[in-house]
Design a protein that fits this description.
The protein is an alpha/beta fold. Helix content is about 55%, strand content about 15%. It has a 6-stranded parallel sheet with strand order 3-2-1-4-5-6, sandwiched between helices. A 3-stranded mixed sheet has the order 7-8-9. The termini are far apart.
Length: about 300
């Protein structure tokens, strides 16, 4: 069985790494927070001194990091992945970052006889813990065949979308859809509440029609209970929309609805709710309309 160098043990990365250990994979792990490394070592992983060390000891190197600057630093630094990885190794960037960054990094990796794939995920912390993530993959088809078994440990849906960067483009498209949908849900539910309707009955009436969706089914019951325990945090959605808007500008793609949703997400964060579930986006519209959907649990 191949050995995996695993870098980034945050909210998503740590449970994903634990699932790989449970499946019997050998892991060499690194994170800037030593306590996170210690936890994985207790679960059976080997510790690495730095990113270069983790990369040098892995046949496959997985990155699960916050954003583009962190991925670039981990890949390109003096103690980075490109300095340590052995020729023929496969780098899988599972972070959610700008696709343009991964496209550029793949070229640098190829110059060192390394293979690189992008494989961002959707499903939040619950999906990471349960191993039920949706994984969107970009990169070489034959390399995808080599890594699919490992990705299947962490996700229930693993789809190669296209060449390098395609996974990140798909993840951003996913985040645009969810964000705009959440804003539409917020407006519709507050609209119903302000009109004096029973919001539960409104939801029951529309969910079987064209307006019904997984987003509504997942979020409306929580909104009605005002349960905003984080599944996917507002701060992380802000980061993804930021990347979508940057890429949109660079590629000449108008994204007006995305920009509006981002404004509401940022208002929610400014009000101190950035670590709540992104379903809490509705609270901004509630405050503007002076209406509250649902009751405290």
């Amino acid at each position: 069985m191949v050995k995996i160098g695993y870098i980034g043990l945050g909210v998503m990365g740590k449970p994903m790494a634990k699932n790989l250990l449970k499946a019997g994979h050998q892991l060499v792990v690194y994170d800037v927070v030593k306590e996170k490394v210690d936890d994985l070592v207790q679960a059976g992983a080997e510790p690495a001194d730095n990113c270069r060390d983790a990369a040098s000891r892995g046949d496959i190197i997985i990155l699960m990091l916050p954003d583009s600057p962190e991925v670039e630093a981990v890949m390109l630094g003096e103690e980075g992945v490109l300095e340590g990885a052995r020729p023929g190794s496969i780098i899988i960037d599972m972070s959610s970052i700008s696709p343009l960054v991964d496209i550029a990094l793949e070229k640098k990796a190829r110059e060192k006889s390394l293979k690189m794939m992008d494989a961002p995920v959707s499903g939040g912390e619950p999906g990471a813990v349960a191993g039920t993530l949706a994984i969107m993959v970009g990169g070489d088809a034959s390399t995808f065949d080599e890594i699919k078994g490992i990705l299947n440990v962490m996700g229930k849906s693993v789809v190669r979308v296209g060449e390098i960067g395609a996974g990140q483009f798909t993840k951003l498209a996913n985040q645009i859809l969810v964000a705009v949908h959440l804003q539409a849900m917020s407006e519709a539910l507050v609209f119903a509440k302000k009109a004096g309707l029973d919001v539960q009955k409104v939801y029951d009436a529309v969910k079987g029609g064209l307006a019904g969706s997984n987003v509504l089914d997942a979020k409306v019951p929580l909104v009605l209970k005002r349960n905003y325990k984080p599944g996917f945090r507002i701060k992380l959605h802000i980061k993804d929309l930021k990347n979508a808007l940057i890429v949109g500008r660079e590629l000449g793609i108008p994204l007006p609805a995305t920009a509006l949703a981002q404004t509401f997400f940022e208002a929610c964060d400014a009000a101190g709710r950035g670590n709540l579930d992104h379903g809490a986006l509705i609270t901004v519209t509630e405050e503007l309309a002076k209406a509250q959907v649902g009751e405290e649990a």
